[in-house]
């Protein structure tokens, strides 16, 4: 989950890197977690941090619990402009490319948590 969050933050920074600083940008982002879950609360904190760090130049309209489209459809919704970003787990997209399982549920490929840890930290 930490890796997916890092990827999302990196993609967000890259996408907004060329935006004019005087212009307010509003992003529509969907998360598959419930707002009251731990991940949902951390997502709300992420939204607050982005808005604070951008001095209000970046606003995020966050949709929780697959409110706009089903979790398996967020990738296409972001690609087609229905959403601006997708913060769902990559395992929902393994039908598009089986390799997505390695950024989503890496434990499926390892015998122990230590093997997963070694992969995440050492490659």
From TrEMBL:
The keyword Signal applies. The keyword Nucleotidyltransferase does not apply. The lineage of its organism: unclassified sequences, metagenomes, ecological metagenomes. One of its GO terms (biological process) is transmembrane transport. It comes from marine sediment metagenome. Pfam families: DctP. Signal peptide: none annotated. Keywords: Signal. This is C4-dicarboxylate ABC transporter substrate-binding protein.
């Amino acid at each position: 989950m930490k890796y997916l969050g890092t990827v999302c933050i990196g993609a967000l920074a890259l996408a907004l890197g060329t935006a004019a600083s005087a212009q307010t940008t509003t992003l529509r982002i969907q998360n598959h977690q419930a707002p009251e879950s731990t991940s949902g609360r951390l997502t709300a904190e992420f939204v607050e941090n982005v808005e604070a760090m951008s001095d209000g130049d970046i606003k995020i309209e966050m949709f929780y619990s697959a409110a706009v489209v089903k979790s398996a459809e967020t990738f296409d919704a972001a690609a087609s402009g229905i959403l601006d970003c997708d913060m769902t787990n990559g395992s929902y997209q393994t039908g598009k490319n089986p390799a997505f399982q390695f950024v989503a549920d890496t434990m499926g490929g390892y015998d122990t948590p230590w093997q997963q840890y070694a992969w995440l930290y050492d490659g």
